[in-house]
Design a protein that fits this description.
Layout lengths: L8 H27 L7 H27 L5 E2 L5 E2 L1 H20 L6 H6 L3 H16 L29 H12 L8 H22 L2 H9 L9 H14 L12 H28 L1 H18 L6 H29 L2 H29 L4 H19 L5
Antiparallel strand pairs: 1-2
């Protein structure tokens, strides 16, 4: 909210970076938190349907942006600060998060987490809240009057007594170290690698979706060219138009429509995924999604029909993204309660690093080596599909 009123560009960028850091931390723990309240049998479906709100956000943001950025007005607050529609857009983007904060204040903490840190009374209250919600009865009415841990772990006895930075970092390492030891090491490393791969393709290529879509839209419908031929043709056209650069910050209506359509397709895909994930199982579902994605990426080399190119490209980018929620739910099941939050955070952190690497690779290589660039991306998808076979999910 503060960044809306910042006139200095670099300070604004810094504050938006801080926003991203804190949002990434909060979003990483969502899957672990939700998984604590759902039985193992229903966990994949529940986490998948929760991820539909990501698709809703992908639709909400461009829809609101279309409404607000189409306006042309400005309000001079000071000599150095002018309030324009894009600043108002930031407020609308904050609203869902603010509503989420209000909802979260009414929810209890995970009873299992509270048990591991020996807050038995709070764990009892949280479980009582769940019992009322599920059965309409309190724990007392169900003849449960006390909760205790029958087999406390040694790691649960580690109580943070020092507030110094060094002690906190040491405690974080002690708490995280079991993830890099047997029996969790292999599964955790595989999950992190696959997560990095799916983000590499989904977010890395997805960031360039509007630009590539604009290049495809610039070609006449009667012209038959593959996606790389279209990209090469657009580069040649730019070169033939001269070297003068004109700054045009207007956003076309087609860009909004493409982004909204992309979000709606994601939303529909999550509905379909929710109906097949339990019958097929998580492992087969991830492998199926990644194999179909790779096939769509491979055939892009030869497709000439504009509509077929767009459909294949969307599936190539979108299907790996659907694996994020499934894989996050799998991480929750593969590690014990006290490690779940850290495991999901580390896994998603490495995943987001994959998106940064992927987007930069496209920026450097796509125009000069289009075919090779797409080949690298669908090869990584196939590698991730092969690694998923190793996971006991």
């Amino acid at each position: 909210l503060i960044s809306i009123f910042i006139p200095n560009y670099w300070f604004f960028v810094f504050l938006r970076f801080v926003v991203g850091v804190f949002i990434a931390g909060a979003s990483s723990t969502t899957y672990a938190y939700l998984g604590e309240f759902v039985s193992i049998r229903h966990r994949p479906v529940v986490i998948n349907f929760t991820s539909m709100f990501v698709a809703l956000a992908m639709t909400y943001v461009p829809a609101v942006a279309w409404l607000l950025l189409s306006m042309d007005w400005s309000m001079d607050i000071t000599d150095d600060f002018t309030f324009r529609p894009w600043r108002l857009l930031t407020i609308f983007n904050i609203l869902p998060g603010f509503i989420s904060i209000l909802i979260m204040t009414r929810l209890p903490d995970s009873p299992r987490i509270l048990m591991t840190i020996r807050k038995y009374d709070e764990a009892f209250k949280a479980t009582d809240w769940i019992a009322k919600l599920n059965t309409g009865k309190t724990l007392a009415e169900l003849n449960v009057h006390k909760m205790y841990d029958e087999s406390p772990m040694e790691t649960d006895k580690l109580i943070q007594t020092s507030k110094s930075f060094g002690q906190i970092m040491k405690q974080m390492w002690v708490d995280t170290k079991p993830l890099f030891r047997k029996p969790h090491l292999t599964n955790f490393v595989v999950c992190c690698t696959v997560m990095c791969g799916v983000f590499f393709v989904n977010s890395g290529m997805g960031l360039w979706y509007p630009a590539i879509q604009n290049k495809l839209g610039s070609v006449d419908e009667d012209t038959r060219m593959s996606i790389c031929q279209v990209i090469d043709a657009s580069i040649d056209q730019q070169a033939s138009n001269g070297t003068d650069t004109v700054c045009d910050d207007t956003i076309t209506r087609k860009s909004y429509i493409d982004s909204i359509t992309f979000g709606l397709v994601y939303l529909g895909a999550y509905f379909v995924l929710g109906s097949i994930i339990n019958p097929l199982g998580r492992k087969l579902t991830i492998i199926l999604l990644l194999v179909i994605s790779a096939i769509c990426g491979i055939i892009l080399h030869w497709l000439m029909e504009p509509i077929a190119i767009v459909v294949s490209f969307i599936l190539f980018v979108m299907l790996p993204g659907l694996c994020v929620s499934i894989l996050s739910g799998a991480v929750v099941d593969l590690v014990p309660t006290q490690l779940r939050g850290k495991a999901v955070c580390i896994c998603l952190m490495l995943g987001r690093s994959g998106s940064v690497i992927g987007s930069n690779i496209i920026g450097v290589l796509l125009d000069s080596y289009c075919g090779i660039t797409f080949g690298v991306f669908y090869a990584i998808v196939l590698v991730c599909a092969g690694l998923t076979i190793l996971l006991p999910i």
